Amino acid sequence: MATVLITGANRGIGLALVKAYESAGDTVIATARTPDAATDLTATGAEIHPLEATDAASVAALAGALKGRPIDLLIHNAGIGDRAGFGALDYDIFADVLDVNTMAPMRVIEALEANIAASDGKTIAVISSQLGSIEITNGDMGLIFRGSKAALNMALRSAAPALAEKGITTLTLHPGWVSTDMGGPNAPVTPDDSAAGMKATIENAGPAKSLRFLDWQGQSLPW
Fold first, then answer.
1. What is the pLDDT of residue 82?
2. How far apart are CA 53 and CA 57, in angstroms?
3. What's the confidence (pLDDT) of residue 81?
4. In-domain check, residue 220
5. How many domains are contained in the chain?
6. What percentage of the chain has pLDDT greater than the value 70?
7. CA 40 from centroid of its chain's CA atoms
8. What is the DSSP string of 39-91?
9. What is the bridge-based pairing of β-strands 73-76 and 123-127?
10. Is residue 63 domain-resident?
11. Angstrom distance (rounded) from CA 63 to CA 60
12. DSSP three-state, residue 104
């Protein structure tokens, strides 16, 4: 069975992913900003570590705690949203969203690269969004969120060849419009369905040297 590390695992999609991989018999390492408050996550029985992915010291502490331990699959799920459009942008929020959605995943990947390379699975999957697709963007709603995910996709696409040199496959995934705190109650996809779909997509993707942008049902998305 594989060892899977899932960030942002205390609720929503992250929590559903923990349950999906635990149900499959995998060893799950989960992170949360405040593990003591993550009661639903604690109830899963997963191994839990504190992580504030925007803080270099916190990421370094996680890497130190996991030093020498192979990680077959890293799923970076942690992220935040913003719905503002052009003309109503808060640039402090813009900076925060870029920090969480773009820089933090890269910081975590760099810190845990050796763990992933030492495993049999050698896979990184980062939760992005189809709203980060430049080709299909047709409005300004969520401009900050869209920009952060487009930047994330570019950063991952740039890093993928270097990771591939160590045998690591990298994926960026759209989880669907999911009924979470971010997605809202009218979203048509449940966290459990999204998690199950992404798990199958990751398993079916196979190794590759370049980044692939896929949705939760395994369909390719335009950049």
1. 86
2. 9
3. 85
4. no
5. 1
6. 99
7. 19
8. HHHHTTT-EEEE--TT-HHHHHHHHHHTTT---SEEEE---------TTS--H
9. parallel
10. yes
11. 5
12. helix
CATH of the domain at 138: 3.40.50.720
89-95 contact pairs (CB < 8 A, 24+) = 89/143, 89/144, 93/144, 94/144, 94/147
Whether 79 is covered by a domain: the verdict is yes
Any domain includes 115? yes
Beta-ladder partners of 48 = 30
Give 3-state DSSP helix, strand, coil % of the chain, rounded to 5.
45, 15, 40
Number of C-beta neighbours around residue 95 at 10 A:
11
Q: Token pair of 165, please?
A: 């040199």
**Below-70 pLDDT ranges, the chain:** none
pLDDT 10s digits, 169-196: 999 999 998 987 777 777 788 999 999 9
> pTM value?
0.96
Query: 208, 169 in Cβ contact below 8 A?
Result: yes
* Residue-number span of the structural domain to which 181 is assigned: 3-215
Q: Which residues does residue 215 pair with via DSSP β-bridges, in sequence order? A: 174
Question: Which single residue is written with the structure tokens 């009661």?
Answer: 39
